[in-house]
Amino acid sequence: xxxxxxxxxxxxxxxxxxxxxxxxxxxxxxxxxxxxxxxxxxxxxxxxxxxxxxxxxxxxxxxxxxxxxxxxxxxxxxxxxxxxxxxxxxxxxxxxxxxxxxxxxxxxxxxxxxxxxxxxxxxxxxxxxxxxxxxxxxxxxxxxxxxxxxxxxxxxxxxxxxxxxxxxxxxxxxxxxxxxxxxxxxxxxxxxxxxxxxxxxxxxxxxxxxxxxxxxxxxxxxxxxxxxxxxxxxxxxxxxxxxxxxxxxxxxxxxxxxxxxxxxxxxxxxxxxxxxxxxxxxxxxxxxxxxxxxxxxxxxxxxxxxxxxxxxxxxxxxxxxxxxxxxxxxxxxxxxxxxxx
Length: 341
Prior knowledge:
The chain has one domain: ABC transporter involved in vitamin B12 uptake, BtuC (Orthogonal Bundle). It has helices at about 1-40, 45-55, 60-95, 105-120, 125-150, 155-180, 185-195, 205-220, 220-225, 230-235, 240-265, 270-280, 290-310, 315-340. The longest helix is centred in the first third of the chain and has 38 residues, at about 1-40. The chain has about 350 residues and is an all-alpha fold. The protein contains 14 helices and no strands.
């Protein structure tokens, strides 16, 4: 008995060390990418110049490039990447299916349709766009869950209905683009591609919401892992499944919708971050923080690739789309062979 307990304790310690090591490495990579974002551009600035600008000093040339252009871009990548990564991981874990993420089941499309409507039809302010985007995302979640309920809840049915809702909302977005005025079209298309060209004043709401709801989501990490075991197992372990699921869904949709409103629907970050984090960290501990860090790394690295790896500059969403599409095809083939969908 003592030998068995020692093996269990040793295994847990090993998993804890792996979790701490991987999370620390992901944080270091994310921090390095943040500094790279601030240093690289048409003019490359030193670490000392960047630090001086961040401390409020007036450095000729660097103050505008770093403080006005690169810093908001980096902050947008950090908070949007974290929001998409965490939100995608929550849905994939809670519904126990890698396809059950906001991009695939239509939640992002709901936020996008609402935001595009405000941009093209209402010519609304950024605050109105953010609020409407959140409402659109929440409304999409409600509709999908109601339509997929039936006589009994089915994850496969939810995913298929979500894909159908996404197709319908994408059609709405296409129609809005067709009727848009010429001067509104570039703004809408740039936003739909997913871009970090954001002013700092447009990021405050996203920053506040992520800082408020991220700790709540992290605190519910253990309960989320229990939900992955199934309804009956989670209930037997003392989890109030309905309350936990409601808090997680609302929190996730809020941060995803606001991230979408700020940067546009950056493709496949919510889809890729969770599986990558789970593969790196393994099981035994909540992967919420690692998934958020992977989301940050994907967004920042993709933006750097889009800005500097080609002769032309591409929005971040184009690069993440190129990265995520092959994995989606592979996942669909694998699930189809297993007959899980």
